[in-house]
């Protein structure tokens, strides 16, 4: 694996446990914030979390201890760790999509984050991350064979890449944008159907992104992601972008 991943050993054979613990901490914190783990819900066991994040149990314990110190979770003797009830502060997010112009703006914003997320994913991915991206790609492949487009699998593919970057800001941004991205993906998917289906071409775009990430080629991953999002936008707008000047 290229690029000095946090999962690689340092010279001399020592690992970077603090960096791994940070990754587990941010991963769990993001999932708690977005409701994957609800208030008062029990977290998976240390063994399950260690297997999922491909780290040791001491690394998981360090991440959980940080969450406890910050009053995000609480440990109950003999029962495990549970998400604490949180204050009902307004959630951060984006205004809903209300127009075609908003869809164009969403594509613009995606172009500022997703190519770089793909770049870092190619540098930092591990086997588990590659597996998650590949699973979403398999769903897209199966749908394409049936002449269908699955926007849920499409989003899962892009989210898995953001998660593979090992930068929780990319993943959190994608999750906050999910409803907005889904609007564009759904319309784009409809545009691909018909007698001159573009589904196979879009599948090949996804395969090119996956191959670059799997092969550890960050520049190709960035370029392929940029090309794919631009192509999706241009197919949806038929090459006629709106003038968004003030």
Question: Describe it for me?
Answer:
- By secondary structure, the chain is mainly alpha-helical.
- It contains 10 helices and 2 strands, in the order αααββααααααα.
- It has helices at about 15-35, 45-55, 55-70, 100-125, 125-145, 150-165, 170-175, 180-190, 200-215, 220-235, and strands spanning about 75, 80-85.
- Strands 1-2 form a two-stranded antiparallel ribbon.
- β1 and β2 form a beta hairpin.
- α1 (about 15-35) packs across α3 and α4 packs antiparallel against α10 (about 220-235).
- The chain is globular.
- The protein starts with 16 loop residues before the first helix and ends in a 9-residue tail after the last helix.
- The model is unreliable at about 1-15 and about 85-90 (pLDDT under 50).
Determine the structural class based on helices, strands and strand pairing: mainly alpha
Q: Could you give the order of strands across the largest sheet?
A: 1-2
Main β-sheet: number of strands, strand sense, barrel status? 2 strands, antiparallel
Helix percentage range: 55-70%
Strand content: under 5%
Shape: globular
The helix/strand series, from N terminus to C terminus, equals HHHEEHHHHHHH
How many DSSP-defined strands? 2
Low-confidence stretches: 1-16, 87-92
Rg over CA atoms:
20 Å
- Tell me the number of helical segments per DSSP (H or I, 4 or more residues long): 10
Terminal residue distance: 46 Å
